[in-house]
Amino acid sequence: QVQLVESGGGAVQAGGSLRLSCAASRYTSSTHCLGWFRHAQGWGREPVALIDSLDRTRTADSVKGRLPISLDNAKNILYLQMNSLKPEDTAMYYCAARGWVGSCLDFSQGYNYWGQGTQVTVSS
């Protein structure tokens, strides 16, 4: 089964940047979809950004233009570049994968493989 390991989280001040990485094993872009999700304390888990095998992406409105997703297919590493961070971006960030059914850019689809998460804390 797909295994996902995130890294790159940390504490930054508002306006700062981070880059999250997710190393994916037993994964192929032709059979799986990948995405980033986040879970802030007191809130439900929400999608942040999704990507498909053609490098098309979809980003949540709340982070559009600030948190682009990208995939290095040669290394099987998923990235989330986090720019202009805001205190409301504080959350545990998770990398997730699912079997390719329908569109990989559909926010409503459930994911069945999850990493352990990496914490991002943004102070004002």
Q: How is this structure best described in words?
A:
- By secondary structure, the protein is mostly beta strands.
- The chain is built from no helices and 11 strands.
- Strand 4 and strand 5 form a beta hairpin.
Number of helices in the DSSP assignment: 0
Helix and strand run: EEEEEEEEEEE
What is the terminal-to-terminal distance? 40 Å
Largest sheet descriptor: 7 strands, mixed
Shape: globular
Average predicted confidence as pLDDT? 95
- Fraction of helical residues: under 10%
Strand percentage, roughly?
over 45%
Features:
124 residues; single chain; 50% strand; mainly beta
Short description:
With 124 residues, this protein is mainly β. 0% of the residues lie in helices and 50% in strands.
What layout of secondary structure does this protein have?
Elements: E1 3-7, E2 10-13, E3 18-25, E4 32-39, E5 45-51, E6 57-59, E7 69-72, E8 77-82, E9 91-99, E10 113-114, E11 118-123
Parallel strand pairs: 2-11
Antiparallel strand pairs: 1-3, 3-8, 4-5, 4-9, 5-6, 7-8, 9-10, 9-11
